[in-house]
Fold this protein.
Amino acid sequence: MTQVAVVTGASRGIGLSISKVLLELGYTVYGICRNPETCNFYEENFHLIKGDLKDPKTIPIFLEQIPNRDKIRILVNNAGLSYFAPIEELSSDKISEMTQVLLNAPMILSSSLTRILKQNEGRIFFIGSVSGFQISPWGNVYGSLKAGLHQFARLLYDELRKYSVKVHLVIPDITKTDFYHDLNIEPDSDPRSYLIPDQIANVVKQILLDQSGLVVPEIVVRPEVFKLKRKKFQK
């Protein structure tokens, strides 16, 4: 039987790495992203669908573009959006955008696909963040929304386990992606101080390969040492 996976934010970073792992495991992957034309990875069973999670009304539209929706066995809620600033500098539009992408969209997607996942005894992965449980300067809205996502994943795990739907919350620490592009800090040059997307994807892979009957509902993944550095901006 064809196995289908849906991954949000699949055109780059952690989402792309997880998509490659799913392809390796034999899944047909439908990736949701805003700019599919920027992705330079091509594979026969990898299909990118243009969709903006900031607009909840478009979610049913791009889900309808998946031709074999009844075969979906995995949903990966990975897409992210972050604005870091003092609270008085965060506009209502930016707060609304983050709320929609980081919390509302994963809830809507999970709700939309739960009946199918129950039929297929599937899985839902949530990619969280350590910002959801530790203080992050100027990251109060982002961290609060990630905390909300973490709690939703935990509650959904208990709700769906009776239907043999496995829910997994993967919480990465500092990961070297373009997440830091617009911030004034970035991962240190020491490779022991950050994770890379393939390492997060490998955690997902190991969870999927484990057929022992146990479930990993939540896992925190950290680099060996903690280091960040301030960016040097040219005047």
